[in-house]
Amino acid sequence: PLALGLYTVNAVYGDTITMPCRLEVPDGLMFGKWKYEMPNGSPVFIAFRSSTKKNVQYDDVPDYKDRLSLSENYTLSIKNARISDEKRFVCMLVTEDDVSEEPTIVKVFKQPSQPEILHQADFLETEKLQMLGECVARDSYPEGNVTWYKNGRVLQPVEEVVVINLQKIVDKSTGLFTMTSSLQYMPTKEDANAKFSCVVTYYGPSGQKTIQSEPVVFDVHYPTEKVTIRVLSQSTTIKEGDNITLKCSGNGNPPPQEFLFYIPGETEGIRSSDTYVMTDVRRNATGEYKCSLTDKSMMDATTITVHYLDLQLTPSGEVTKQIGEALPVSCTISSSRNATVFWIKDNTRMQTSPSFSSLQYQDAGNYICETTLQEVEGLKKRKTLKLIVEGKPQIKMTKKTNTNKMSKTIVCHVEGFPKPAVQWTVTGSGSIINKAKETKYVNGKFSSKIVIAPEENVTLTCIAENQLERTVTSLNVSAISIPEYDEPEDRNDDNSEKVNDQAKLIVGIVVGLLLAALVAGVVYWLYVKKSKTASKHVDKDLGNIEENKKLEENNHKSET
């Protein structure tokens, strides 16, 4: 490299400077010397080497004490390069007849430290020019230049907006420069989260280079321009009994800490922090809610709907009615939205709403009217009706000869609620039959039946009794030798009446023939004897051993 047409050596601060003597060694060389020139042009000799004695001498120059080295080819080396080494050095080769000189220019370079942004502002305020910070790059040679950047773009000076002041201070002992660039800046709201940095540009042995500082982000303060009110809720809908938390926020930095909340029905705003809580809200809390800054500026509003659901069941609770009565039932709904209503009876969902124009036993049960608002989570209401249908005992008796022709089945069909207790007796003797079998009690109905094989005609009585009434019905049954009209247990009432009439007719004919054949006294004696004998046979068929013993004792007494 050349400087002004002269040979130049570029050295790094602190390294060794190596300067070759660029002269050809002449014949008859006596010695070689190095000197440097003072600013006024006067020479200062620093090194001498004899070509014959091969000895080296260094002049007593304080700046270069113990730093110089002169090789056999007259190359001069200077250790620990300093800024003061930037001089014009001259190599001299001397013969008896001539002195040859060749100058060399030395340039020393020092890379500055990485720039730092010091004295940073705690925060920046919009519409206000203030000191952002100082970018400092130390120990540079030659002096460098500092440039400010925002988000990677160069900040150019703008009056009253961007003011940059660069100072360069040299250390007299080292000759190194420290560059300090201060930045005054008027931020805007958009500068929030902006990255500020500075770059120092300097020259090194190989040319121009740059070093960048670490970026810095400043807290930018700006006033609130808009307030926003919102409802904090885990659900998208609000129902009666919920808690409501209102939150008001401003878009300033720092955000406002206090607000005025305006509640429906309240004329004045309620001063509070940025949240306002209402607990266990009712439907009258529905309305428009507002909030503003404490100076009543920049207001925002939101509408809250508190959903509700009312259910009125008439009648409800436990209701007791008599069979055949009418019972109007109504389930009335009042809600903030369309509600879904359905009925459940005894844990089974009903297809239609219950309606009772004439109550039957099967209508009894537990009824639930339930309603929900599908769009509102957790909003459900239900009420219950426990319907009890009472009725006095009703009896219908049937009889039929079994297929084996060896016995007859007598059935007492009973209706009533509470469930009647059934008792069988034999008319005349008053004997109680304990071997009856009962069917399952369903919808207020059940049957009690006995199986007998009477040798003579008998009359059986079925007694059904509950808390409301005692009902008694009797049925004449012919001897086993006389077939009865077979009738299913589920025949209707008209058929049953016809069968009963036929049975009565047969019994009447038989009794008439007996009365016509016997005299009055004999008929009476035979009647008593036959009744006791028939009772004995019935009880024998039913397994009542004790009753048979009593009948035999009575017969014996009568005969005596």
TrEMBL record:
Main location: membrane
GO biological process: adaptive immune response; cell adhesion
A Pfam family of this chain: Ig_3
Localization per record: Cell membrane; Cell projection, Axon; Cell projection, Dendrite
Keywords: Adaptive immunity, Cell adhesion, Cell membrane, Cell projection, Disulfide bond, Glycoprotein, Immunity, Immunoglobulin domain, Membrane, Repeat, Transmembrane, Transmembrane helix
A single Gene Ontology CC term: dendrite
Keyword set includes GTP-binding: no
Ig-like domain: residues covered: 103-212, 223-305, 324-386, 393-473
Transmembrane segments: 505-527
Keyword Transmembrane included in the entry's annotation: yes
InterPro entries xrefs: CD80_C2-set, Ig-like_dom, Ig-like_dom_sf, Ig-like_fold, Ig_sub, Ig_V-set, Surface_Rcpt/Adhesion_Mol
Membrane topology: Single-pass type I membrane protein
Annotated coiled-coil segments of the chain: none
Database matches in PANTHER family: CD166 ANTIGEN (PTHR11973:SF2), CELL SURFACE GLYCOPROTEIN MUC18-RELATED (PTHR11973)
Protein name (Swiss-Prot/TrEMBL): CD166 antigen
Lineage: Eukaryota, Metazoa, Chordata, Craniata, Vertebrata
The gene coding this protein: Alcam
